[in-house]
Inverse folding.
């Protein structure tokens, strides 16, 4: 749609300094802090537990959140040390996973889970391809975590720049269609 716009993407789960890194737009998980940037809400992302079928074959059945404390888990460094779950009946349970590996990106957590290194809490969108390929399986499908808020941040000084405005509008329109 925009042949004259050149995109440069940086994937990093750390919080970037917009000015120092010369970033125009950023996706953020969680509530954005109030500041110099303009935030636009995106649809929340659902997360769930995933592991490789081979890993699951080697552990006792994981049916309830309490079972998580007995197995090796993969956590992102930025992630809470407690995982909270709820089921369709309204029951809630919070557990402290047994950490076997800490990583700094969702992509590393997904790759480690697919490699059989443990159970990871992943966004369902990220895990979808692994599930389709058979490299990931959903763990405790009747239990969910709370959806995570997402937003698109834009430097206020760049909001009126036509290419930035066009990409921002495209992202917002596309995300709101789904």
């Amino acid at each position: 749609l925009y042949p004259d716009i050149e995109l440069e993407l940086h994937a990093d789960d750390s919080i970037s300094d917009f000015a120092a890194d010369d970033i125009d737009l950023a996706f953020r998980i969680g509530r954005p802090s109030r500041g110099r940037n303009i935030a636009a809400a995106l649809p929340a992302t659902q997360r769930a537990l995933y592991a490789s079928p081979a890993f699951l074959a080697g552990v006792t059945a994981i049916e309830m959140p309490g079972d998580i404390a007995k197995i090796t888990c993969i956590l992102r460094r930025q992630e809470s040390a407690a995982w909270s779950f709820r089921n369709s009946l309204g029951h809630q349970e919070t557990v402290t996973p047994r950490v076997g590996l800490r990583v700094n990106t969702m992509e590393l957590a997904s790759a480690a889970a697919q490699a059989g290194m443990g159970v990871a809490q992943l966004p369902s969108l990220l895990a979808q391809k692994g599930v389709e390929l058979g490299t990931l399986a959903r763990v405790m499908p009747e239990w969910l975590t709370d959806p995570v808020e997402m937003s698109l941040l834009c430097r206020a000084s760049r909001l009126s720049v036509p290419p930035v405005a066009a990409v921002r509008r495209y992202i917002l329109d596309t995300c709101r269609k789904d």
User: Anything to note?
Assistant: The two ends are 19 Å apart (CA to CA). The mean pLDDT is 87. The helical segments are 18-21, 53-57, 106-114, 124-133, 162-177. The CA atoms of residues 97 and 171 lie 35 Å apart.
